[in-house]
Amino acid sequence: MSIARFSPFELLLLKSRSQVDTATLLLLAWVLVHRQHVSEGQRRRRLAQVTAQFRHGHELGPVMSIAHSQDLQAIQLAAEVVRKECGKERSLSVIHQAITVATDDGELSLANHYILRFFADLLSVAPTTLNTLFKELTGTPLASPEDPSRDTYWQTHDPDYHARKARDAAAAEQQQQQANARAEQQQREKEQRHHQKQQKQQEKQQEKQRRQEEARQAREQAQQRQQEQERQRQREQAEREQQRSRQQDSQQQRSSYQEERRNNHSRQQRASPPPPDRTTRALSILGLNPGATRIEVRHAYRRMAQLHHPDRYYSESEQQVALASARFQRIKNAYDYLMQTY
Amino acid sequence: MRDLYQRLAIPPEANEQAIQHAVTSCQHSALRQDAEAVFSVAERREAYDTLHDTVSDIGKLRARLGLSHGAHWQGDVANDFSLPPDHAISRHDELVDRVSHAVSLYNRWRRLRGPWLLIAVFAAGAGIGAGLGLALCWGLLPV
Lengths: 342, 143
Description:
Shape of chain A: elongated
Low-confidence stretches of chain B: none
Low-confidence stretches of chain A: 265-274
Radius of gyration of chain B: 34 Å
Number of domains of chain B: 2
Distance between the termini of chain A: 81 Å
Helix content of chain A: over 70%
Oligomer: heterodimer
Structural class of chain B: mainly alpha
Number of helices of chain B: 6
Helix content of chain B: over 70%
Largest sheet of chain A: none
Strand content of chain A: under 5%
Largest interface: A-B, 47 and 46 residues
Structural class of chain A: mainly alpha
Distance between the termini of chain B: 96 Å
Shape of chain B: elongated
């Protein structure tokens, strides 16, 4: 057994002379609260007018305040009472009153669209009946509610939609321009840096060449000196001849070795094969091994496109569709690349 | 009417930054465009939020009253705002229970009030008599 106190609406309902009337009053007040561009006094007067024959026997003020507080439990209780007590005649009259209250100036607010339909379901009034009733009362057919969760709704209902869009576009363009300018400047700086680097490299190379030259000269001088010495030694000591011949041998060997190395080096420079990386990757996306023919590529593409086409995931979630379209895009890119290169 | 918060997987009370992040990282281009249109402008978001509150209230009411499959509750609204029935007790039954409890308490009080009233009156009379007797005994009252 609950120990909570009676809520204001429950007390109102218990004191009321007619529970159905009090409950209907709350539901109508709920509709009125969701009408736009209406003052509080107008709401009260309208409610009093519509419910002139009701036999509830209490003030309207508390009902309006409960409706304003959006007390979901009170509204649920009212809906239960109305559903329990209303026959066919009475439920039609409740719907009638709700439509009258909701569309005095012929315009139904979005919230009231849903509230009216909720009442119709609650009182088991068929859609056709609701439509005819609405048309009789307002002269216009009951349209389906517009959808403010879509861009098109704001296109028609926001007066400065296009102005705002233009402003956003201008701001985006300005940003783009700024970014472009920045990128250009960066590019220029990069080029300058590159230029400087090249200059430095050239200087370095020149330096290196100079150093090599000096080293060669030094070596030649050393050789000359050596030869002179050897000649002296030849002149002085005949037994050094053998040694000199051995030295010459070793020099020859060294020179031949150097030549070989130079050859090797040039061969290495020549052997730089083009990277077949992208082609193999594209082939592996289509599930093929390197060396597949053009026809095989086309068949594989058709198969994969059928498997991963986003339309296959139409009935599933948006996430799935997005994933499938990403996959499909990748497959298509791979196929396009292969068709260009093959 | 779709529930953009649910579709972007963010709570309705999320702040600007979280919403911005969710919108930009959304993979579905049409949904992203709609969400940008609604959430980029404060007034539009306010209008959307009021309607969102009302419609989710109606969704709750429908779930409690067993009306989540009505003829007037179809399409995007029904998809996004229908809740599973929460098996809450009917408010009217609860009210009837509480009224009957209050009535039984009241009846018990009425039933017990008669004997208790007699006892109280008797005790009060006895007290007054005893007081008077004592006063007479001690000669405090002029006779």
